[in-house]
């Protein structure tokens, strides 16, 4: 009884992996919880721990209560949705707001754990435990996104080459920002590829909707004053990093562009884009769209 009433400190929200009691004890020991082989014996009497995220309810429990909650408690899950085309800056704002996390710590954790400034999250709906830390939420989202990206790359290329993959993610991020719908994506992709082949600057407004400017209307003033790596009016080729987080539809379009001679497109009155091969037709399309 004395042993079971000894205090034990832990985070309120704990992750329990699937597997044997010994594996779970080893996992908890690796996280510096004061757990030992005797606790493994006690758990065999109390019951098998549940896998997944559990809510202990406090950061200081008696050992008996802690072991009991390992077998009974479950963490409340909350869904969060990252929409295609959203930037990581805005998504971190969303995570901080919906999960009551520290926005600055989220940014620091992302910087520590990520290899790229943008494009590492796969747009999707994720179920995450309430009470999760800034470190763990970034870790989980990056891991799940990587696994999805790797699987998609394996299906297309039969392998996963990080440099090659993020080249296409960067092109896909422009497609994502510029396209009015999924059907247009291969056409927008063809314009990007065709302009690059001809040595033309992309000159696409969507690349300026990076970071905190994700939902800002791009103006001629912004185009002239923005000196960032994302300004395709200023710099040739694609940006060195993605502009936003992208869907697999956009990535597929980046890899398999439509076979066209298109070099220009403009948004029409119905919200879709009108594509053209020469500048004179493009000017006519602009005039029709602005009447």
Give a verbal description of the structure.
It is built from 11 helices and 8 strands. Helices cover 45% and strands 11% of the residues. Strand 7 (264-267) and strand 8 form a beta hairpin. The model has no long low-confidence stretch (mean pLDDT 92). The protein has helices at residues 21-30, 37-46, 63-72, 88-98, 103-113, 134-157, 162-178, 185-197, 220-225, 248-255, 279-290; strands spanning 7-9, 13-16, 52-55, 60-62, 77-81, 125-129, 264-267, 273-276. It has 291 residues and is mainly α. Helix 5 packs across helix 6 (134-157) and helix 7 (162-178) crosses helix 8 (185-197).
Largest sheet: 2 strands, antiparallel
Identify the strand order in the major beta sheet.
Answer: 1-4
Task: Count up the helices.
Answer: 11
Global mean pLDDT: 92
Overall shape: elongated
Structural category: mainly alpha
Distance between the termini: 84 Å
Provide keyphrases for this structure.
single chain, 291 residues, mainly alpha, two-stranded antiparallel ribbon, two-stranded antiparallel sheet
TL;DR of this structure?
By secondary structure, this protein is mostly helical. It has helices at 21-30, 37-46, 63-72, 88-98, 103-113, 134-157, 162-178, 185-197, 220-225, 248-255, 279-290; strands at 7-9, 13-16, 52-55, 60-62, 77-81, 125-129, 264-267, 273-276.
Topology, pairings included?
Layout: E1 7-9, E2 13-16, H1 21-30, H2 37-46, E3 52-55, E4 60-62, H3 63-72, E5 77-81, H4 88-98, H5 103-113, E6 125-129, H6 134-157, H7 162-178, H8 185-197, H9 220-225, H10 248-255, E7 264-267, E8 273-276, H11 279-290
Antiparallel strand pairs: 1-4, 2-3, 5-6, 7-8
